[in-house]
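Subject: for your reference before the review

Hello V.,

The reviewers asked for a structural picture of the protein, and I figured it would be easier to keep everything in one thread rather than splitting it across files. Below is the amino acid sequence we used in the manuscript, unchanged from the supplementary table.
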Amino acid sequence: MTTTGEFRPHRVAVLALDGLLPFELGIPHRIFGRPRDARGRHLYEVVTCSVRPPGPVETDADFAVHVAHGPETLATADTVIVPASYELGPLYDEGRLTDDLAAALARIRPGTRLASICTGVYVLAAAGRLDGRPATTHWADAERFQRMFPKIRVDPDVLFIDDGDVLTSAGVAAGIDLCLHMVRRDFGTAVANDVARRTVVPPHRDGGQAQFIHRPVPDPQLATTTAARAWALGRLHEPIQLRDLAEREAMSVRTFTRRFREEVGVSPGQWLTQQRVERARHLLETTDLSMDQVARESGFGTAQSMRQHLQAALGVTPTAYRRTFRTGGAERHGGAGTPR
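And here is what came back from the structure prediction:
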């Protein structure tokens, strides 16, 4: 809510630069354009802008896009997202902003949340917004990016990094993960999952998941671990041992573990913990169960164990998480500024 109690959606400005990738430009519009509150009101307003007055912006494809808003839009944003571009010029070659880009970024209000997809991170880096902070970008560009900006702590292995008011992601599909993460952070798991279902993408890939797993694609004629994962998801509240999962697929523990990593990218134990964290989040948001009951239903056993896992995964306690998202989260976070 605003100070007057008037509803106002969170305003997301997407900065379109020449050479942009159409797919990545469309990600914020697709993800942030879907969430609505209980009264059917859009929780976000998404606006595309350029560093120039309204007009065409070239893409890396055989067409341009007409952008109807100029750089003044950045001054009205609660979140600014910079998608990737293949024509960053001196920004990419020398790590410096062009005059028009510097002038545009200077319009952004203090406290505005900033995010980048793939090479959009060069914009935030050249503007000095990432000095001394962790960041990521596409794995193929990470080494070069680190050399150009040595003050930044570059992690080339993760899908995205949330450093509070600045978030960065790897390329292409990782931009979807980043935007869904922001929706989840702003309005809770239920809203983000609904967006994911409508977009037909996985509802959650943890930011720490590896960008690129250098392994051959598993032979499609070999058995998979799909049935074991489905079986486990229906029994998260029960103790599940690695041998139980392996037996579901008639594999040895060693073979199952290797195959699971090839297909999922993490160990069975890590995957189980991720699913239990998601289950706990859902229960904290949508039920009045006690902390002990949520811990049992999500498979953590005790409230203390659940607290430790949620603190490690989300940086907040179960009590704080429920306080943020349990009652009317979408209504409470509909106003100006960055939702918390």
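For the response letter, the relevant points are probably these. The two ends are 13 Å apart (CA to CA). Residues 212-221, 327-340 have pLDDT under 50 and may be disordered.

Happy to draft the paragraph if you're swamped.

O.
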